[in-house]
Amino acid sequence: MTYRSILLAWLLCLLPFSVACAAPERIPVRVGVFDNPPIVGTASGVAPEGIAIDMIRWVAEREGWQVTYVADSFDRLVSRLEKGEIDLLVGVAYSEERARRFQFTRENLLGNWGMVFRHAQADIASLPDLKGKRVALMRGSTHSQALVQLAEQFEAPFTPVYVDTYPQVLEAIVERRAEAGAVNRVFAALHAHTQDVVATAIVYNPIYVHYAAPQQANPALLAALDRHLAALKADPESAYYESLRKWLEAAPAHRYPSWLPWVAGAAGGLLGLALAIAAFLRHQVRRQTGELQRRAELLQSEIEQREKVQQHLNQLAYFDGLTRLPNREGFRIELNKMLAELQGTDERLALLFVDVDRLKNVNDGLGHGAGDLLLQHIAERLRSVLRAHDYLSRFGGDEFVVIVSEIGESSDAELVATRLLSSLAAPVDIGPTRIYSSASIGIALYPDDATTVDTLLKHADTAMYQAKEQGGNRFLFYHAQQTARVVERLTLDTRLRQALERGELMLHYQPIVALDDRRMVGVEALVRWNDPEKGLVMPGAFVQAAEDTGLIVPLGEWVLEAGCAQLRGWQQQGMASRLTLAVNVSTRQFEGRRLVKSVEQALARTGLAPECLELEITENVMLIMNDDVRWSLDTLREMGVRLSLDDFGTGYSSLSYLKQLPFHALKIDQSFVSRIPGLAGDTQIITTILALAKGLELEVIAEGIETQAQYDFLRDRGCEFGQGYLMGRPLAAGELAARMDRPELARND
Predict the structure, then answer these.
(1) Which residues pair with 137 in a beta bridge?
(2) How far apart are CA 464 and CA 440, in angstroms?
(3) Residue 191 resides in a domain
(4) Are residues 563 and 418 in the same domain?
(5) What local confidence, expressed as pLDDT, does residue 560 receive?
(6) CB 110 within 8 Å of CB 45
(7) In this predicted structure, what is the pLDDT of residue 545?
(8) Is 292 helix (H, G, I), strand (E, B) or coil?
(9) Are strands 474-477 and 721-722 parallel, antiparallel or unpaired?
(10) Burial of 246 (0-12, 13-18, 19+ CB in 10 A)
C-alpha cells in the first residue's frame, strides 16, 4: 500500500468523528401539556397531539429543539411553570394577572370563548338561570373564574363542582352531578355532542390562547414561536391552517360506539349479497329508468343549489355579517310581525335602542379591526343575558335594538335594560389591550308611546340620545318633552353655525395668578355667544352641541386665532409682555393632525411667540391616544407651545402616559377645589396630585378658587398657580386691559 493510500484511509476514518463533533447540540425544551383537545390531547399511552403540539413540533424541527413533554393537570402545570420546572406551557389563556407572572407569545394560537352547556332536563336558558344550580368547572381555567365573577355581577351565584378536565365537565353533567358546566368553544365544537347535554345561549369571556414561559426564561423561545407563527398565519396553505383543518374538522372517535364498525361490516355484507341476487332482475329496469333517474338527479341538484343561493341571499339581506345578528331590515320584518299579532290585544312590548359609548375612540386609537372585535364581544354579551323570546338585532354602526316582548309593567323592560348594561361592565381584552365599554339605552313602549315601527324607533332613539347626553352608561324611558328638546338641539346647531359666520362670538379672559404673590401670569380665553335674541350665552349652553356635531373644530380654531391676536395686540401696546394665553382644545381637533396646522397658522398670522401660547387638553385625549395624537403633542412641544392637562382627576389619565407625554402642567378640576379644605377625601386627592406633579416635574394650576381658605390651602401645599372668582372673573378684553398695570390682584376682586 502506498503512502498516499494510507493517508487517504486515515482521513476517511476521521471524517465521521469530525462530522459528529461539528453537529450542533439540540436545545432541550420541557413542554407542559394537559388534556384540552383539540388544542392539546394527552390520552393515556399515546404521545401528545393537537394544534398546539403540531406547531411546537414544526418550530422544534427548525430551531433544533429537543422537546420533552410533561403531562399533568392544568393547575399543577401552572405551578410548575412558575417554579421553572418546565420551559413552556401550551394552550394558556392570556390575562392581566397571568401576564404579571409569566411571559406570553405575542402571537396567539387561536381565539376562544366560554360556553355553558346544561343537562337536557335542566331549565337553564340565560345567565340568571344559573342561580342556585350546580355548575361543573375545570380547575384553574380562565373561563371558570370568569363565569364565577360574571354570575356574582348578575346576582346569580351558583355552586361550583370542580373537575380536572373539560371531558370531566361533560361527564359531571351526564351523571347529574351538575345541572350545567362550562367549557371552551373549541372543545365544544368537537366534543359537546354527548347525549343529554344541550348548549345554552350563555357565551362569555372571549380570550386568546397563547404559549407561556416563566418570567426568568430565555426570551428566545417565545421569540422563535412568535416569528414562525406570524409567518405561518400569513400563508393560508401553511402547516398552521393544515393543523386547524385537521383537528377542527375531524370527527371525534368517542362519538361512535366501538361495536359500530362490526355491525356496519356485517350489514354491508348482507346488503352486497342481496344486491348481487337482485342485480340480474334490475338489469332491464335500470336501462330504461337510468335516463329518467339522471334527469331527476339533475333537477334535484338544481333545486338544492337554488335553495343554497336563496339562503345566502337571505343571510346577506337580513343578517349582519360581523355579528351574525339580524340587521336593520330583519329587525323591521320581525317588529312588523309582532305588532300585527298584538293588535286588538292588551299585550305590550318595549323597544330598547342601545348605542355603544365611545366606540369611535377605540376605532381611532386601536384601529377598526379592534372596533369590530369589540362589537362582536358586545353582541355576545348582550345576547347572553336576554330571555329566549327577546329579539336582538344590530341596527348598524355602534347601534343595537332589542325587542322585549311579553312584558306586564315598564319595570320588566327596566330589568332587561339593567342586565344589558351590567353585561358590558366587565372589561374586554382585545389581545393585550383591555377596553372598558358601556352603552346608552333609550326605551319606548308599545302601545303607550307609539303603535308603528317608525314612531317607536324614533322615540327610542330620542330617549337614547338623552341618555347619552347625560353622560352615557344609563337607560332612559321616552317622554314627550324629549322630542321638543331634540328639536331645540337641532335649532341650536343651525343658529350656532350662523353665529360663527356672522361674528356673534366673543372672548372673555380670566386671570391666572401666581399664588405666592398674586401676580397675574396669564389669562384663559373663554368663548361667549352674543346672541341677538338671548343676550350673552355662556359656553355650557352650546359647547356640547358643537362637540357632538363637529362644529367644535372651526369654533376652536376661531378661539385660538382670536385669542392669539388679542394677546399680541396687548404686547404691541406695551402690556402683557410676560403673560401667557391658555386656550381649551377639543380632542376632535387632533383628527388628521389638524391641530398642529391650526396652531402654526394662528401664530403665523398674529405674530405671537409660541412660548406665549398654552393649550389646555382634557383627559379624554387618553382615549384616542394613537400615533397622530402623540406626533401632534410632540410637535407642538418642539415648536415651544406649552401643554397642560385640563380637569385632571375627572377622566381617564394613565400614569404611564403622564410620564411619556410632553405636558408642562396639570390643572386641578374645580370639583375638587370647591370641597376643600372641609372634606378629607378631596383634601387628600389634591395633596396627592400636588405630590405626583412635583415628582413628574409638572406645574400645577388650580381652577375655581372662590374663598381665601381654598387659596391658602393650595398655596401652603405648594400649588404654584390658580384662577377663580376670588382673584378675578372672566372679563372682556377692554376691562381686563385696565387691570394689567397692577402688579397684583386685590383680594376682593
Answers:
(1) 162
(2) 6
(3) no
(4) no
(5) 97
(6) no
(7) 79
(8) helix
(9) unpaired
(10) middle
CA–CA distance, 659 with 650 (Å, rounded to integer): 18
Are 520 and 447 contained in the same domain?
A: no
684 and 538: one domain? yes
Q: Which amino acid is at 170?
A: L
- The string of DSSP codes covering 467-490 is HHHTTSSEEEE--HHHHHHHHHHH
Kindly tell me the sign of the dihedral angle through the C-alpha atoms of 394, 395, 398, 400: negative
pLDDT at 430: 83
Q: All 3 cell numbers of residue 540?
A: 355650557
Joined together, the cell numbers standing for residue 661 give 407625554
Q: What is the pLDDT of residues 670-705, one digit of tens each?
A: 888 998 988 877 788 899 889 989 988 999 999 999
- What CATH number is associated with residue 621? 3.20.20.450
Question: What proportion of the chain, given as a percentage, has pLDDT over 70?
Answer: 83
Side-chain half-sphere exposure of 705, counting CA atoms within 13 A: 30
Q: Last residue of some domain: 446, 478, 510? A: 478
Tell me: cis bond preceding 511? Omega within 30 of 0 counts.
no
Spans of the chain below 70 pLDDT: 1-24, 190-192, 249-299, 301-316, 480-491, 623, 649-657, 741-749
Q: If DSSP codes are grouped into helix, strand and coil, which group holds residue 521?
A: strand
- Convert the pLDDT of each residue in 305-330 to its tens digit: 666 656 655 556 788 889 999 999 99
Distances (CA, A) of 182 to 36, 174, 248, 281, 624: 13, 13, 19, 57, 36
Q: Looking at the structure, do residues 597 and 692 belong to the same domain, yes or no? A: yes
Q: Which pLDDT does position 565 carry in this prediction?
A: 97
**Residue 41 gets which letter from DSSP?**
B
Sign of the CA dihedral 33, 38, 43, 47?
negative
Q: Exposed (0-12), middle (13-18) or buried (19+): which is 423, by Cβ within 10 Å?
A: buried
Model pLDDT, residue 282 = 57
- Can you spell out the DSSP letters for 308-366? HHHHHHHHHHHB-TTT-SB-HHHHHHHHHHHHHHHTTSS-EEEEEEEEETTHHHHHHHH
Q: Give the Cα separation of 555 and 561 in Å (integer).
A: 10
**Domain that includes residue 300, residue range:** 264-318
Q: Report which secondary-structure segment, H or E, holds 269.
A: helix 260-318
